[in-house]
C-alpha cells in the first residue's frame, strides 16, 4: 500500500521571477529554514542571467553548478519540500516552461520598486494556462517602491490574476515597520539589518489600543488600510487558491529574511500536495499503487570524458524503487536503475524509494528525451510537455567532414535534452536548428566541440515560424505538399512541419488550405 501520509506531506514548487527580483535570495533563505544549507551565498552561484549579452563560457561554468541546484529538497517541520530551480535567463525560457510541468504550485517574486516585469508576465501566463496555484511575494520592502494598493492593481491587470493580500505592509523603505499578517492575525515588526526571527505579536482586534505602543501614528494608517483591504479584496478561501483562481500576496524582504518564515509557514499549510497528471489514456492519481513518472529535464554531465546525463523524473504515482524494472514507454523496453539519485540538502545521494511529488535523477546514456514516460508496464504518455515553435532559425553545417558521425550524434543528443529543435528539409535534406534564444546557438556549437569533438557552423535562413500540420483532407494535403515542396521539413519524430518564411506566406497557406490545421506547439 502506498503511504498516503508521505504524499500529503510533500510540496513541490518553483519560484519564478524576472531576473533580479530576488528569487535566488528567497530560495536561499527558504533553504536555511530547512537546515539545507548552513551559509548564505550557497545558491548564489546558480545564476545564468546577469549577462544579457552572450557569455556562453559563463553559462558553461554555471551549468555545472546548476546540476546541484536543479532540485532542492529539504525537510521543514513535518513537510518535505522540493524547490525546482528555473533558469533566470530569458533565452532559457523553454527550460522554465518544462520545469513548470513538474511542479504543483509556484511562488512569484516581484520587486516592490519595479513591479510586474516582462519575464514574470510570460511565466505567469504559462502557470495560468495550467491553472497552477500561485502565491505572490512582494520583495525588497526595505526599499522605496510602489504603493501597495497600486502594485496589487498592477498585478491584477498585467498578470491577469485575482489577488488577496494575506499580509499587509506598514510603511516602506526607510519607514518600513513590518507587516500585519492577515492570515495569522499577528504583527511582525521589522528591524533593519537584523536577520533573526522575532516573535510575532498577536492582534485579533485591530482596535486594541496597544497597537499604538508598537506602531505609534502608523497604527491608525494600518487600521484604515486593512479596512480598505477588507472592502476591496475577497476573503481568502483555500479552494480558490488551489483552483488557481485567487493568489494570496505576501510582503517582505528576502535579503533581510523578513516575511520569509511566514510565507513558508502559510505555504506549507495551504499549498497543494502532489497532484496527479493527465495522460493520453487517463488521469493518473498520485495514490495509485503502480509507479509512473515523466522526464521533464535532462542535464548533461560536465565531464566530457563521461558523456552520461541525468534525466530528471517527476514521480506522478506509486513509489519509484531502486533496481526495479520499469517500462520506458517510448522505446518499449524495460530499464532498471542501480543508482537513482535524490536531491536533498543540495547533496545528491542514492535512494531506495521515491514518492509522488519527488524528483529522482536517473543516469542516462542516451535513452531518454524530454517528455518520456516511465511506468510499471502500462502503456501511457503524460501530456503537457510541448515544444513551442522556435523563434530563431539557422542552417547547421558540418565544419569537419571527418567527424560527421560525431556531429549527428551530438546534435541528436542535444535535441533530446531540449536545448533546441532540429528540422530536416524534406527536399534539400538540410538541417535547420530552431531555438527560442540566440544564446542556444553558441551553447550548441560550444558543446558539440567540447563534448562530442565535432565542429559545426551556421548559415542564415529566412524563416518566420515552423508550423506542424495535419489534415483529413488528403487532396489538400497532397496539393500543399507538392506546391510547398521546398518549404516542408520533418522534426525529430518524423512529423511534417511547414517552414513559413513570413507571416504573409503562413496566412496565405492557411487561407488557401482551409482543411489543413497548422499548429505552433508540438502537442495537438
Ligand atoms: P534573482 O535570483 O531573482 O535574479 O535575484 P537575486 O536574489 O540575485 O537578487 C537580486 C539583487 O537584489 C541582489 O543584489 C540581492 O541582494 C538583492 N535583494 C534581494 N532581496 C532583497 C531585499 O529584500 N532587499 C534589498 N534591498 N535587496 C534585495 P545584487 O547587488 O545584485 O547582488 P549581491 O551583490 O547582493 O549578491
What does this structure look like?
Helix content is 28%, strand content 28%. The protein has 14 helices and 31 strands. It has 3 domains: 267 residues, 3-Layer(aba) Sandwich (Rossmann fold); 98 residues, Rossmann fold (3-Layer(aba) Sandwich); 128 residues, 2-Layer Sandwich (Alpha-Beta Plaits). The radius of gyration is 25 Å and the shape is globular. A hairpin with an 8-residue loop joins strand 14 and strand 15. The strands form 7 sheets. It has an 8-stranded antiparallel beta sheet. The chain has a 7-stranded mixed beta sheet with strand order 2-3-1-4-5-11-6, sandwiched between helices. Strands 18-17-23-14-15-22 form a 6-stranded antiparallel beta sheet. It is of the alpha+beta class. Bound molecules: guanosine-5',3'-tetraphosphate. The site of guanosine-5',3'-tetraphosphate has 19 residues, from helix 2.
Describe what is shown at a glance:
The protein has 524 residues and is of the alpha+beta class.
Amino acid at each position: 500500500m502506498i503511504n498516503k501520509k508521505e504524499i500529503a506531506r510533500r510540496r513541490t514548487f518553483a519560484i519564478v521571477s524576472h531576473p533580479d527580483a530576488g528569487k535566488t535570495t528567497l530560495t536561499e533563505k527558504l533553504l536555511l529554514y530547512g537546515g539545507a544549507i548552513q551559509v548564505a551565498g550557497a545558491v548564489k552561484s546558480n545564476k545564468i542571467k546577469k549577462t544579457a549579452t552572450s557569455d556562453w563560457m559563463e553559462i558553461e561554468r554555471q551549468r555545472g553548478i546548476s546540476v546541484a541546484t536543479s532540485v532542492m529538497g529539504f525537510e521543514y517541520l513535518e513537510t518535505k519540500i522540493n524547490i525546482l530551480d528555473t533558469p533566470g535567463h530569458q533565452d532559457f525560457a523553454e527550460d522554465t516552461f518544462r520545469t513548470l510541468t513538474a511542479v504543483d504550485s509556484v511562488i512569484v517574486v516581484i520587486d516592490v520598486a519595479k513591479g510586474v516585469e516582462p519575464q514574470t508576465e510570460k511565466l505567469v501566463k504559462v502557470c495560468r494556462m495550467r491553472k497552477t496555484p500561485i502565491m505572490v511575494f512582494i520583495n525588497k520592502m526595505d526599499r522605496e517602491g510602489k504603493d501597495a494598493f497600486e502594485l496589487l492593481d498592477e498585478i491584477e491587470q498585467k498578470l491577469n490574476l485575482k489577488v488577496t493580500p494575506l499580509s499587509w505592509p506598514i510603511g516602506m523603505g526607510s519607514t518600513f515597520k513590518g507587516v500585519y499578517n492577515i492570515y495569522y492575525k499577528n504583527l511582525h515588526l521589522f528591524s533593519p539589518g537584523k536577520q533573526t526571527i522575532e516573535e510575532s505579536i498577536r492582534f485579533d482586534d485591530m482596535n486594541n489600543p496597544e497597537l499604538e505602543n508598537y506602531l505609534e501614528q502608523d497604527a491608525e494608517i494600518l487600521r484604515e488600510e486593512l479596512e480598505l483591504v477588507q472592502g476591496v479584496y475577497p476573503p481568502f478561501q483555500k479552494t480558490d487558491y488551489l483552483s488557481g483562481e485567487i493568489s494570496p500576496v505576501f510582503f517582505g524582504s528576502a535579503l533581510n529574511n523578513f516575511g520569509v518564515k511566514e510565507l513558508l509557514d502559510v505555504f506549507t499549510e495551504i499549498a497543494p500536495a502532489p497532484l496527479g497528471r493527465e495522460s493520453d489514456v487517463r488521469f493518473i492519481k498520485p495514490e495509485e499503487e503502480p509507479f509512473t513518472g515523466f522526464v521533464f529535464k535532462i542535464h548533461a554531465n560536465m565531464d566530457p570524458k563521461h558523456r552520461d546525463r541525468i534525466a530528471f523524473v517527476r514521480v506522478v504515482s506509486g513509489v519509484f524503487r531502486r533496481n526495479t524494472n520499469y517500462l520506458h514507454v517510448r522505446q518499449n523496453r524495460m530499464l532498471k536503475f542501480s543508482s537513482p539519485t535524490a536531491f536533498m540538502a543540495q547533496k545528491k545521494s542514492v535512494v531506495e524509494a521515491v514518492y509522488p511529488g519527488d524528483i529522482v535523477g536517473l543516469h542516462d546514456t542516451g535513452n531518454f528525451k524530454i517528455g518520456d514516460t516511465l511506468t510499471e508496464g502500462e502503456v501511457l504518455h503524460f501530456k503537457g510537455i510541448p515544444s513551442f515553435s522556435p523563434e530563431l532559425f539557422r542552417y547547421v553545417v558540418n565544419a569537419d567532414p571527418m567527424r560527421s558521425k560525431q556531429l549527428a550524434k551530438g546534435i541528436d543528443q542535444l535535441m533530446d535534452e531540449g536545448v533546441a529543435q532540429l528540422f530536416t528539409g524534406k527536399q534539400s535534406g538540410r538541417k535547420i536548428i530552431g531555438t527560442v534564444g540566440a544564446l542556444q546557438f553558441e551553447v550548441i556549437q560550444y558543446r558539440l566541440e567540447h563534448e562530442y569533438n565535432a565542429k559545426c557552423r551556421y548559415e542564415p535562413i529566412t524563416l518566420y515560424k515552423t508550423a506542424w500540420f495535419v489534415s483529413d483532407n488528403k487532396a489538400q494535403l497532397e496539393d500543399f505538399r507538392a506546391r510547398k515542396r521546398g518549404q516542408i521539413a520533418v522534426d525529430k519524430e518524423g512529423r511534417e512541419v511547414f517552414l513559413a518564411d513570413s507571416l504573409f506566406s503562413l496566412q496565405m497557406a492557411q487561407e488557401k488550405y482551409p482543411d489543413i490545421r497548422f499548429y505552433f506547439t508540438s502537442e495537438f
